[in-house]
Write a structure and sequence with these properties.
Aldehyde Dehydrogenase, Chain A, domain 1, seven-stranded mixed sheet, single chain, 503 residues, Aldehyde Dehydrogenase, Chain A, domain 2, alpha/beta, globular
Length: 503
């Protein structure tokens, strides 16, 4: 049985139509301009495969110009603003985002394919992020501490610390949640007093351009926020290696993360990486199935599985295995696939033909390796890159669909019989990744004991992927370096300077 589809005529607001008809350029030093080579790229609606608009793309020369502008702004009036003045700008930008929620929501849906209810929540959340970091900017404080003994033996002394911006930050943004990922880097960087050069994904550049215009409307000085659309191998590589960039924050694949690290060696710039995941979901025998069946299913299928924290390795106790799998299959078959603009849509398309083919290849791999296809497994026979929500049972740890990040709506289920928490945790930890995970049980002692044994940066109990603006998020192992969101997200853009004064 296929998942249901709902493909209605797509209609968008006049503001969105006007935006799509405008020229889309690079933002460098407070001015919109074409790239140095005059190149353009067409962006497509993945639900229809139809072109949306064209955007200018930049290369190394444009990155150089943007970094120069950011460096000059860092040393200019921006550096003399107080924490409170920066906070006012961030709050003003939050209000402008709220005023443009409908535009940003529709742009996110058209460019990425996500359902509109997710896009709207995402835009509301990015306004909250700017408000959160506006407050955090006002609390950037040093502290006093004991001065060195060899100084105080001869005279009085004072030692204190200062928190200062890292400098020019390069922000490389992925395509899966483009507006949200852009802001969870942009907001703390600006709160810390950094200037930024952002490179959106070439797949989804549009929401970043709206944010750039709103930042200018909010009053950020020229050069503080620069946006250079471009290809990763060109603009992204130059940004990562640039000797005048002090920090890179990258979200994307683990393979690309390794290349970012190599590029950053030149000037030993600071690097934050939020990379891949293959998150475990453990369903204990006493789990509340009424909550666990839809909750675990959406842990895999949320955003069509195109999210780094997707729960794609499902471990179910044998006593409830069949009932759980049957329930999740029925749930998957009930999901409405369609264009994200339609309010009934629950799952949208994959981002591109290349991603669609990659996911289908993994499905074929699962079949070849002997996994049991419970439901799904096919691309819909109509325009758009739609793949049915897919569940495999009888999976084993050696299968590619279990080991490798698919980034699509593909769930792998493994059955376990033990009640030994060490053995269960060993199953969950049998991966090079460590980004997210969840445990489903009505016994909170079991839940907390098992959570403490799972090696991942974010583990939920009786829910999955419960991220929030104030909750640090990041991974163990090959899921990355550092944390985003919350206080840790701000600290990633700050240096600590110690000062000792002999009195």
């Amino acid at each position: 049985m296929q998942a249901r589809t709902d493909f209605k005529t797509v209609t968008v607001s006049p503001a969105t139509r006007d935006f799509l008809s405008e020229p889309h350029q690079l933002l460098i030093n407070g001015r919109w301009q074409d790239g140095a080579e005059g190149k353009q790229l067409t962006t497509y609606d993945p639900a229809t495969e139809e072109p949306l608009t064209q955007v200018a793309i930049g290369g190394a020369e444009d990155i150089d110009a943007a970094v120069k502008a950011a460096r000059q702004a860092l040393q200019g009036p921006w550096s003399r603003l107080t924490h409170f003045e920066r906070a006012k700008l961030l709050s003003r930008l939050a209000r402008l985002i709220e005023d443009n929620t409908d535009l940003l929501t529709e742009i996110e849906v058209l460019d990425n394919g996500m359902p509109s209810f997710i896009a709207r929540l995402t835009i509301q959340n990015i306004a909250e992020m700017f408000d959160y970091y506006a407050g955090a900017a006002q609390r950037i404080e040093g502290r006093t501490t004991s001065p060195p003994r060899h100084i105080t033996e001869h005279s009085e002394a004072l030692t204190y610390t200062l928190r200062e911006p890292v400098g020019v930050a390069g922000l490389i943004v992925p395509w899966n949640v483009p507006a949200s990922t852009a802001v969870l880097k942009l907001a703390p960087a600006l709160a810390a007093g950094c200037t930024v050069v952002m490179k959106p994904s070439e797949e989804t550049p549009l929401s970043a351009l709206v944010l750039g215009q709103l930042a200018m409307d909010a009053g950020f000085p020229p050069g503080v926020v620069n946006i250079v659309n471009g290809l990763g191998a060109d603009a992204g590589a130059r940004l990562a290696e640039h000797p005048e960039v002090d920090k890179i924050s990258f979200t994307g694949s683990t393979a690309t993360g390794r290349r970012i690290i190599q590029a950053a060696i030149g000037n030993l710039k600071k690097v934050s990486l939020e990379l891949g995941g293959k998150s475990p979901v453990v369903v204990m025998p006493d789990a509340d199935l009424a909550a666990a069946i839809p909750g675990v299913a959406m842990a895999t299928f949320f955003l069509q599985g195109q999210n780094c924290m997707a729960g794609t390795r499902i471990f179910i106790h044998e006593s409830i295995h069949d009932q759980m799998v049957e329930g999740m299959a029925a749930f998957a078959q009930s999901l409405v696939l369609g264009h994200g603009i339609n309010p009934t849509t629950q799952l949208g398309p994959l981002i591109s033909l290349a991603q669609c083919n990659k996911v289908l290849a993994y499905i074929e791999s699962g079949l070849s390796d002997g996994a049991q296809l419970v439901t799904g497994g096919k691309r819909l026979e109509r325009p758009g890159y739609f793949v049915e929500p897919t569940i495999f049972a009888n999976c084993t740890p050696d299968m590619a669909i279990v080991r490798e990040e698919i980034f699509g709506p593909v769930m792998t289920v493994q059955k376990f019989s033990t009640t030994n928490l060490e053995e269960i945790a060993a199953l969950a930890n049998n991966t090079v990744y460590g980004l997210s995970g969840s445990v489903w049980t009505q016994n909170l002692s079991t839940a907390h004991a098992l959570v403490s044994r799972i090696r991942a940066g974010h583990v939920s109990i009786n829910c999955h992927g419960a991220v929030g603006t104030n909750i640090p998020f990041g991974g163990y192992g090959q899921s990355g370096w550092g944390r985003e969101f919350g206080e840790e997200g701000l600290n990633a853009y700050l240096e600590t300077k110690a000062v000792t004064a002999q009195l």
